[in-house]
Design brief:
Length: about 325
Amino acid sequence: MKFRSDPAQIRGSIAPLITPFTDDGGLDLDSLRGLVAWQLASGSHGISIGGSTGEPSTQTVTERIQAIQAVAAEIDDAVPFVAGTGSAKLEETLELTAAAHDAGADAALVITPYYARPTQEALYRWYHTVASEFPDLPIVIYNVPSRTAVDVAPDTVARLFRDCHNIVGIKETTKDFEHFSRVLQLCGRDLLVWSGIELLGLPLLALGGVGFISAVSNLAPWAVSRMFEAWDAGDHDTARELHYALHPLVDLLFVETNPAPLKWVLHQQLRLASPYVRPPLIPLTSGAVPRVRTLLDQSAAVLDTPLTKEETA
């Protein structure tokens, strides 16, 4: 919790980790710890678990808490830890947030309650409740309308930021770039805004964003963190070069539903014991493998780990 008292330090490339599973679908904490160690060695500026890439909706509350505790212990305050604690149920969200608080997380990333499509007033009350329950824990709103079917309006973000001292930021996973701009215009630069859309991470920095929580950092953590560092240092040419070099990996993530392609690659690189994804997802299909391999070849400049296995699926 070293960064909890100063959430402005939570900036740069915050890697949103996958959740590794065994071949029979169990939680693989050994692989998870290895991924954390790799992210730290590769220069990621922070680590998150429990976002969309981590398949949280397929896990029990107990499993999610175990993953949070394992990640917190492995990080050991080396970088900020942003724990994903949101659920479609308020009781589960509060239980997960309490566990993250006790594990030493520096902030809680709370997704909008999905499927129910709450009104803006309902969203306000939801986040106000969570923030009030944990007044010493920074809360980050997680806005991802493509997965939740609800969008947190800029006015609602501004109202929460004004009324709740510990709501410190928002992860914007929307391709509506105007939304980014209006949120920052209403809230000012004190609000911490991260992009969850890979190809909007660099552009957001020009508007005053503080970084990105980008799934592609699961594959190229050094390149993603270096892109932020280059921009922050005023080396915008290098930042742009890395942005464009990462395009094939971004395309790779979505050859089939994320994180199936991502897990396949990490398994091939021997970073995961299994490429298993839980239903309703399925592992990368054999028909998609050639496309993934082509995109990997195009990404050689930003990858630090080649494929070491020769499986076809």
